[in-house]
Structure formats: structure tokens, C-alpha cells
Recover the amino acids of this structure.
């Protein structure tokens, strides 16, 4: 997610929206202050290296004395999170469905045999993707082995997710899928040595969501693919650790969790403001862990949260969806006023249809959650932008209900590009043809934005001009020019004047956009993810050509000697060099390159009828 991915942008989003509304909404300033404060307190985790305590990996004696001792006679016995007494046990567990899975509709297109020429092109493209992965992987091995991330320009290793080897564990299943068997074996042996004890993280606060999607998800997926028991053992260790974060009076999750106080038996209480994706996106990983181990405690833990979402789905200010910030302490998920499928919310929604598939259709609540939220999103969040060429596309925006009537913010994000995939999958699973159409148009919208930007790559966030009537949406340059002037605070009466035209040129905003608040591209996967799924669902080979164009643009502009690096601005001026940033997020190897590889694979590799992926692109086996 991908708050993970989502946090920095949030400040931009709030700021830009705030500037617009400040005059109208005096009373909202307090709320903004709280969100902003929340924001700044969440950042240190990302930069935990400088903030975190200095003990960690090698336990110094003074830190050791704080740690609980579960061993009595045998001092060498490892600390086990599962041995920690539970302060707030459940009265009775919500049972994991173990009945016969329903026969769900087929998801993948019925592909016909491929002609020889097409196959040659496909395999050549696939080998280019693999080459890029190999370059990054061997550089990670050489320069940042066992660390969270490789800095692709300076070649340093960085610890951005607690120091448990995020890139190592996140990449396991990609190594398997790319048939890099020796590398996989070496990575599994190394991952099996990672310590998940209470003193192991390099930060005193753990982001449970990130740990869950990258580490637990990565281990479970690699286990599902390879059946290697060492991976299941590690997955259980991580699962037992994260389970402790649910040990609160109301069994709501501590999303920002402190392992050391938890391990010493301190009381924990869930927060009054948690991010919806951070509390709502543990369901797939915890369910899969319960399915594999037969121990239902993990499923019970997430299903209690699902039930709160389900009970309050129609009580929010945008019935069907939930605000991005929720009160977990009072279990009141209805009070916020900002609604989006993008940053901070995304995987909450993404997991509803996927959970339905993972449970073999045995829990109708996930269908209800999906259908209710998509009804609201299609009525209020999706919009058709006015663009040159009049392409019939959709963008997923934001709704704010703190103004009357509630207002659509035509604010697109790279993160929201997963929506095309979600709608196409939901459309297949629940036999809703119109959802597949939405899925196509949302994916086409992301592809349109890629192509409209000078480097052929989408920025983190952008704004467009929604057409009031999606059936009457013809490009009008004057309307666009007035809109960008309004947005930028300029007021020019004569749009055709030399002054006006010069101002427009100086803003460097490609036609069709009204502003570009965050011009970075940080190697994100969501657009190729949707292109890949749409290819597998529709069988339309044009998606492979689209994917190839995207790959070439990204590789050309982000490649470094040591890896691939994020771009500071994808809106370059003519003749200007591309500025790179010294970070290669673990999702580049875990997600982006995996989807680029899979779109050029045989269609039975990770078939959508056998596998369903978590939000970090880790495929879990579907029940048969
Ligand atoms: C949430 O809080 C509001 C305001 O206090 C209250 O009106 C509403 O009933 C609460 N909803 C739930 C589900 O607790």
C-alpha cells in the first residue's frame, strides 16, 4: 500500500486541498491540525534509522534486562511471542470457514494458442525484464544484503522498515517465479536466520501494516509456491509477533505498535485515529496463515475488524465507504469526512474481493463490503476527465463531505491505479459486467496519464478537470486554460494574450492536467498491476504492448549502475536531465518487476484462477 507508499504525498494532498478550502471552512482548521500532527508522528517510522534506539540487532546487556524472559532453566531458549500471556483473550473465536469452497466464475480469459512471432517478441521482452531484476538483485546482494533497501545511486544499504531485511523477504517469491533457483535457495536460508524477537527491530515503533504486507505476505507467498517449511516457521514467528498488537481491550489493532512494552506485558489501547488501510488490510495474510496452520486465532483477529467495517458501512457520511481516518479506540468508523480509494485507504477496499476469493466464496460479508463500496465509488469518486483527444477514460478521485453539498476533488494518484484491477477482478468474481467496464476505463485512465507525461511515466499525484456529464466531454482548450489559471491563483482576462500563453508555458503542465502537486515517480507498481490483470482477464494483447512501453520508459529513465532509482520529477522541461532520488523501494523487486515479468509469461504462470495476490503482489494459493 499502501500507506507505506502513501504517506509523504498525504501532506501535499492535505495542503493543497486546504489552501482551496481555508476561506470557506474556518472550523476545519482544527481537524487539519490533527491530521497534520498525526502525519508528522507517523513519519519517524519511515526514517527510523536516525530516530530509533540504538540497541536492536545485537542485544546489549542493558536492553536484554528489559526483555521478558520466557526461559527458565534453558537460557538459550529463544523468546517466543506465542508464549506471552494474552491480557485480553477472546471469549470465543470466530471460526475460520472450512467448508467446501464454492465454484467461483473463471477469471482468466480462455487464451488460444499463441503464434510463433508473437511468442518471440514476448520472450524477448520478458528476458529484458528479468535482466533488470537480476542487475538489481545482485547489486542488493553485494551492497545491502540483509538490509531493508539498497540505495541505488550511492550503493548504501538503508533500514527503512525496522531492519528485518525487507527487500530480501519481499523478493523471495519473485526469485521463485523467475526461476532463479540458486538465488532463491540462498535467500531462503538467509531469511530463515532473521530474528523477530522484541529487541530485533531497529525502531521502537513498528508499522504493523507494512510488516504484515511485506514480510508476512512475502514469507507466506514464498511458502505457498515452494512448500519450504523454513518459510512457514518464519511466517508463524511474524504472525505470532503481530498477533500481540491485537491484544487490546476491544481487540482492535495497535497500528503503530511498540514491541518492547508489549513484550513486557504493558497494557495497550488502540488509537482514536488510525488509517483505514492500516487497520483494514491484514485480512488476507492472517487468513492465509490460519488456513495453512489450522490455527484460527489469526482469522479471528482480523474478522473482528471486518465486522466493525460491515456494521458501520452505511452509517458514514458517504454510505458504502469509510473515511480515511477511523477511531479504533471507540470502534467508531463513521466520523471522518475524506473518502478515497487512494492513499491511506486503498488496500482496505482491494482486500474485499480478494478475501472473497481466498475464502472460496464462503463469507458473503466480503461481497457485501465490495459491492457497497464500489457502488459509492462509482457514483461519487470516479470521474471522466476532459482531455485532448476525448479519450473515454476514468480517474479515481476524492470526496470531501465537510462541505455542503459534498464535493469531488479531481485528484488522481498513482496509488489509485490499482482500482482498475480491483473492478475487473470484482466484475469477474461477482459476474458484474459493468464493473469490468469500469476496470477497463480506470486502467485506460492510468495508461493515458503515463503517455501524456513527457517521460511516459505518471507522477505521484495530479489533478484534472472532470466533465459534469460523462457523455458530453469534449476537449476545450479555453476551459482548460481558465482552469489552470484559477488553480494557480493567476487571473488573466485574455487567454489568448502573449502573457497568458507565456504563463501557461512556464507552468509546465501537460494539456489535460490542471495541476501536478507531486511530480515524483518512485518505482510504483499499481499501473502495471492493472495492465497485467486486464491482460489476463480480457486476453487483449494490446495490454502487452502498453506494458512494454511503460517498461521501456521506466527502465530508460530510472536505471542506475547499481539498480533503479525514483525520479524527482516526471514533468521534465525540454533538454533537461532527469533528476533521480537515491531510493529503491522494496516494492520495485516485489511488485513492479514481478508484474512486468508476468505480463510476458505463459498465462498459466500465477493463473488468477489458482492464485490471489496481497497488496504487495505476493500470490496466495486459492482453495480448491
Ligand atoms: C460515532 O460517534 C458519533 C458522534 O459521537 C455518534 O453519533 C455515532 O452514533 C457513533 N457511531 C458509532 C457506530 O459508534
Amino acid at each position: 500500500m499502501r500507506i507505506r507508499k502513501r504517506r509523504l504525498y498525504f501532506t501535499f494532498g492535505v495542503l493543497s486541498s486546504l489552501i482551496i478550502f481555508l476561506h470557506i471552512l474556518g472550523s476545519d482548521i482544527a481537524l487539519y491540525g490533527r491530521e497534520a500532527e498525526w502525519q508528522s508522528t507517523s513519519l519517524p517510522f519511515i526514517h527510523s534509522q536516525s530516530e530509533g534506539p540504538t540497541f536492536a540487532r545485537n542485544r546489549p546487556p542493558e536492553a536484554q534486562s528489559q526483555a521478558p524472559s520466557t526461559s527458565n532453566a534453558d537460557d538459550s531458549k529463544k523468546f517466543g511471542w506465542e508464549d506471552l500471556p494474552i491480557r485480553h483473550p477472546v471469549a470465543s473465536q470466530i471460526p475460520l470457514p472450512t467448508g467446501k469452497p464454492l465454484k467461483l466464475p473463471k477469471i482468466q480469459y480462455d487464451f488460444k494458442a499463441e503464434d510463433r512471432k508473437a511468442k518471440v517478441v514476448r520472450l524477448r521482452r520478458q528476458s529484458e525484464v528479468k535482466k533488470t531484476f537480476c542487475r538489481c538483485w545482485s547489486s542488493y546482494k553485494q551492497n545491502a544484503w540483509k538490509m531493508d533497501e539498497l540505495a541505488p545511486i550511492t550503493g548504501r544499504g538503508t533500514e527503512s522498515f525496522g531492519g528485518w531485511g525487507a527487500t530480501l523477504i519481499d523478493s523471495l517469491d519473485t526469485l521463485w517465479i523467475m526461476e532463479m533457483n540458486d538465488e532463491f535457495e540462498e535467500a531462503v536460508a538467509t531469511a530463515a536466520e532473521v530474528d523477530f524477537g522484541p529487541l530485533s527491530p531497529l525502531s521502537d515503533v513498528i508499522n504493523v501494516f507494512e510488516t504484515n504486507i511485506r514480510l508476512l505476505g512475502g514469507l507466506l507467498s514464498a511458502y505457498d509456491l515452494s512448500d519450504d517449511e523454513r518459510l512457514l516457521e518464519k511466517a508463524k514467528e511474524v504472525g505470532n509477533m503481530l498477533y500481540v498488537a491485537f491484544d487490546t481491550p476491544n481487540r482492535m489493532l495497535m497500528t503503530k505498535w511498540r514491541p518492547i512494552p508489549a513484550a513486557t506485558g504493558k497494557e495497550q489501547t488502540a488509537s482514536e485515529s488510525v488509517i483505514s488501510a492500516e487497520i483494514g488490510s491484514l485480512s488476507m495474510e492472517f487468513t492465509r496463515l490460519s488456513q495453512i496452520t489450522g490455527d484460527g486465532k489469526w482469522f479471528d483477529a482480523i474478522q473482528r475488524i471486518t465486522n466493525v467495517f460491515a456494521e458501520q458501512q452505511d452509517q458514514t457520511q458517504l454510505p458504502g465507504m469509510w473515511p480515511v481516518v477511523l477511531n479504533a479506540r471507540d470502534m467508531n468508523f463513521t466520523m471522518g469526512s475524506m473518502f478515497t480509494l487512494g492513499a491511506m485507504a486503498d488496500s482496505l477496499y482491494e482486500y474485499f474481493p480478494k478475501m472473497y476469493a481466498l475464502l472460496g466464496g464462503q463469507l458473503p460479508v466480503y461481497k457485501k463490503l465490495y459491492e457497497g463500496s464500489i457502488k459509492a465509488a462509482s457514483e461519487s469518486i470516479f470521474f471522466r476527465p476532459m482531455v485532448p483527444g476525448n479519450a473515454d477514460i476514468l480517474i479515481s478521485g476524492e470526496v470531501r463531505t465537510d462541505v455542503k453539498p459534498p464535493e469531488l476533488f479531481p485528484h488522481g494518484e498513482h496509488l489509485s491505479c490499482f482500482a482498475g484491477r480491483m473492478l475487473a477482478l470484482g466484475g469477474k468474481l461477482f459476474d458484474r459486467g459493468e464493473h469490468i467496464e469500469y476496470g477497463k476505463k480506470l486502467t485506460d485512465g492510468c495508461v493515458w496519464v503515463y503517455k501524456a507525461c513527457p517521460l511516459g511515466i505518471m507522477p505521484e499525484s495530479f489533478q484534472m478537470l472532470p466533465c459534469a456529464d460523462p457523455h458530453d466531454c469534449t476537449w476545450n482548450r479555453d476551459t482548460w486554460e481558465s482552469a489552470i489559471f484559477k488553480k494557480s491563483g493567476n487571473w488573466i482576462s485574455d487567454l489568448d494574450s502573449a502573457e497568458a500563453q507565456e504563463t501557461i508555458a512556464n507552468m509546465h503542465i501537460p494539456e489535460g492536467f490542471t495541476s501536478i502537486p507531486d511530480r515524483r515517480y518512485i518505482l510504483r507498481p499499481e499501473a502495471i498491476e492493472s495492465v497485467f490483470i486486464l491482460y489476463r482477464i480480457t486476453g487483449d494483447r494490446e495490454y502487452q504492448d502498453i506494458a512494454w512501453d511503460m517498461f521501456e520508459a521506466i527502465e530508460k529513465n530510472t536505471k542506475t549502475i547499481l539498480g533503479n532509482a525514483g525520479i524527482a520529477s516526471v514533468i521534465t522541461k525540454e533538454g533537461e536531465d532527469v533528476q533521480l532520488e537515491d531510493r529503491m523501494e522494496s516494492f520495485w523487486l516485489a511488485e513492479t518487476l514481478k508484474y512486468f515479468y508476468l505480463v510476458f509469461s505463459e498465462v498459466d504462470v500465477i493463473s488468477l484462477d489458482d492464485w490471489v495476490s496481497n497488496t504487495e503482489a505476493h500470490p496466495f494459493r486459492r482453495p480448491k
